[in-house]
């Protein structure tokens, strides 16, 4: 496959399902050789096989991004297989229902849940960046893309630890941009709205999904491809002058005053759009 990422080598963490898996497919379609670094080995292998079957190049590697030795070994394996690393997409996050149950409002955050959240979401992104950046520097540059969320930017009612971990990623991304920019390394964060991958399809349903949709400005919630396309853009030279940025890819969720949805409903009810 050839395209704007031909010759590039990419690592996508947590790419066994959901947004990461779609991103891995998309990067491969644009010509990148892709390593899927994923906690669950079968998922990693399955995602890699799918890319290979479609004519791309990919390997699946089991890796817990919270464990430094596993991250080091994963990066070494990618370098051995493909010859280096140009692109790192820090996508992995711990989002299982059991885990989320311990991550609520501040007074009801379980400490072990908080620590694992920070270790995987923020610590994993740090460890992968730490072990990939030297390889990027050796090749004269690279692009890192980190997945954040509205929870990491604005106060919300629940998922406190998750939000804290995503805020940390945003800051880490700016630090990487400042520290290695002159050596050709770019680092950007995408702040993602609600995207219906496998996980959100199950966890956000019914009335809750409608409330969240009402706060997005687009007719529909996000599709994993909407994220994958932006990651491919940020990974490619098309975005050569973008670094240290936090880019909302959220259907306008974070762009407006909090009253938009209720006032939209009010205007519809009274049949006029003026105060
Ligand atoms: N889906 C959304 O609406 C949404 C919104 C905002 C941000 N995001 C972010 O986008 C990313 C992907 O979300 P998703 O909905 O596809 O999630 P998902 O739960 O479907 O996929 C996450 C993947 O990460 C893997 N993973 C978990 N812990 C890991 C670890 N320690 N090491 C390696 N891999 C690990 C899981 O096995 C899974 O395959 C996450 O960073 C998430 O916070 C998603």
Q: How is this fold's topology laid out?
A:
Elements: E1 9-13, H1 18-29, E2 33-38, H2 41-53, E3 57-62, H3 68-82, E4 87-90, H4 97-100, H5 111-138, E5 142-149, H6 160-180, E6 185-192, H7 198-203, H8 206-215, H9 224-235, E7 246-249, H10 260-270
Parallel strand pairs: 1-2, 1-4, 2-3, 4-5, 5-6, 6-7
The protein binds nicotinamide-adenine-dinucleotide.
Notes on the structure:
- The protein is an alpha/beta fold.
- It has one domain: NAD(P)-binding Rossmann-like Domain (Rossmann fold, 3-Layer(aba) Sandwich), CATH 3.40.50.
- It is 48% helix and 15% strand.
- It has ten helices and seven strands.
- The radius of gyration is 19 Å and the shape is globular.
- The model has no long low-confidence stretch (mean pLDDT 97).
- The structure holds nicotinamide-adenine-dinucleotide.
- Nicotinamide-adenine-dinucleotide (NAD) binds next to helix 1, helix 5, strand 5 and helix 7.
Q: Which structural class matches the secondary elements?
A: alpha/beta
Output the helix-strand order: EHEHEHEHHEHEHHHEH
CATH structural fold name = Rossmann fold
Q: Quick one: biggest sheet?
A: 7 strands, parallel
The figure for the number of domains is 1
Look at the structure and give the mean pLDDT. 97
- Find the count of extended strands (DSSP E, 2+ residues): 7
Q: What hetero molecules are bound to the protein chains?
A: nicotinamide-adenine-dinucleotide
Tell me what portion of residues adopts beta-strand conformation.
5-15%
């Amino acid at each position: 496959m050839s395209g704007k990422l031909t010759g590039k080598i990419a690592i996508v963490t947590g790419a066994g399902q959901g947004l990461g898996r779609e991103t891995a497919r998309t990067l491969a379609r644009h010509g990148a050789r892709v390593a899927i670094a994923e906690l669950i080995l079968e998922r990693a292998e399955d995602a890699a096989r799918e890319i290979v079957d479609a004519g791309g190049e990919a390997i699946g590697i089991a890796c817990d991004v919270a464990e430094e030795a596993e991250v080091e070994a994963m990066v070494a394996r990618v370098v051995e297989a493909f010859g280096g690393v140009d692109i790192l997409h820090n996508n992995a996050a711990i989002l299982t229902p059991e885990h989320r149950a311990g991550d609520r409002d501040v007074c009801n955050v379980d400490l072990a849940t908080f620590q694992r959240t920070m270790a995987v979401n923020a610590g994993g992104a740090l460890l992968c960046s730490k072990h990939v950046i030297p390889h990027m520097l050796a090749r004269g540059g690279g692009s890192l893309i980190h997945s954040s969320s509205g929870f990491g930017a604005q106060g919300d009612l629940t998922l406190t630890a998750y939000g804290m971990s995503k805020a940390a990623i945003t800051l880490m991304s700016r630090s990487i941009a400042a520290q290695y920019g002159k050596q050709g390394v770019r680092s950007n964060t995408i702040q993602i709205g609600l995207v219906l991958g496998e996980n959100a399809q199950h966890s956000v349903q019914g009335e809750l999904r409608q409330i969240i949709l009402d706060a997005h400005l687009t007719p529909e919630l996000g599709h994993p491809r909407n994220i994958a396309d932006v990651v491919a853009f940020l990974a490619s030279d098309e975005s050569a002058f973008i670094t240290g940025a936090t880019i909302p890819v959220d259907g306008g969720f974070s762009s407006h005053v909090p009253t938009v949805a209720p006032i939209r409903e009010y205007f519809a009810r009274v049949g006029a759009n003026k105060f």
